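call fold(seq) -> C-alpha cells
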Amino acid sequence: MAQAQHLDNSQQLEEIVKKPTSSFKGAKTGFEGQEAEIGKAVQLALKTMASSAGYKHEMNDALVKARLQAMQFAKDTGMMKEYVEHDIKTMRPINSRVGQVIAKTGDKEAALVGLTERTACHYQLVLETHAEEGKRTWQSPWKNVLEPSTRMGMFTLTEKEIHEEWFTPRIHGFAKDLGVEVKVSEWNDDGVVTIELVD
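ret:
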C-alpha cells in the first residue's frame, strides 16, 4: 500500500501535482462500504450516552447489568463457585488455543493481550485498560451501575465480593488454560485492578 503524502509545504504539493500517477489519495478508514453499520453504532453510542434515567449511563452499561444479574443469581443460589467454573470451561477452547501459541513462541505477553486487548468481553466491559509490559491496569467497571441499582434493591453484591469471588478465581482459571501464572491485585476501595505476569 502506498504511503499517503503529507502536504507540509508548497514544494511537496508541486511534486505531487507533477506526478500524474501520484499516490495522493483520500484518507481511508478501513470501514468503507460499512457506513450504515457505523451510523447505527454511532447512533447507539449517542443514545446510550444521552440516557440518564436513574444514573448517567456509560457505553458498557448493558454488559455490566447482564454480568451483575448473573453474579447476583449465583450469589443468591450459593453457586458462585460453579458460575466461575462454568465461565472458565466456556472460555477454555479459546484460552487453550492462545496457550498453544504461547507455548510455541514463549511470548507470555500474549496471555495479557488475550485477556484484555483482544477480547471484546474485556474491552466492552472495561472501557479503558492501561497496558505495560507484563501488566494491565484498569478501573473496576461495576460501581457506576452497582451503586444506584443497589440503592433500588436490585443487587446485594459489593465490588469487593465481585473482585474476590468472581473476578480473581476466574482470571486464575483463564491463566491456567493459557499456561501462565498471573498475580491479581487485592481489592482496594479506589477500584483500581491490576493483573500481571508472574515469571
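DSSP finds eight helices and four strands in the chain.
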